[in-house]
Design goal:
This protein is mostly helical. The protein folds into 2 domains: 39 residues, no CATH class; 57 residues. Helices cover 60% and strands 0% of the residues. α5 runs antiparallel to α6, α5 crosses α7 and α6 crosses α7. The two termini are 29 Å apart.
Length: 125
């Protein structure tokens, strides 16, 4: 989390390219290597395929877990955090939810301690 927070706004690239950087407030965004290849502008969102097809698929295969969509990592992380007793307000803040009620509406089952067995089945079959 510390590294992600430090990298969140792509501050180095953004500051060096103030007039050309499109700030979408992303954690990971297009950088010079993408732009040089003619694939968009600095700061734009990465294409899902860049992460999903190249890196994420390799990691899923190496870990021997069932494939989920890349966005599923967000849900898995939140579910595991709540299932293991992390405060709802901390999980809500990490997810960008303005209200803890939203987090509980989506992940309430985890806060009630029902998630670990379900996740084990989903991930490992």
């Amino acid at each position: 989390m510390t590294r992600l927070k430090a990298y969140k706004q792509q501050s180095v690239v953004k500051m060096k390219n103030r007039t050309r950087y499109q700030d979408f407030g992303l954690v990971f965004a297009k950088e010079h290597s993408h732009v040089r290849l003619g694939k968009g502008s600095l700061g734009q969102p990465l294409q899902v395929n860049n992460i999903g097809e190249r890196e994420f698929e390799r990691l899923v295969t190496a870990a021997g877990v069932r494939r989920i969509r890349f966005h599923g990592l967000r849900h898995t992380s939140a579910t595991l955090a709540l299932a293991h007793g992390e405060p709802v307000r901390d999980v809500a803040a990490r997810l960008g939810h303005s209200k803890t009620s939203m987090t509980l509406d989506i992940y309430g089952h985890a806060a009630e301690g029902k998630a670990p067995d379900t996740l084990r089945r989903v991930l490992f079959g």
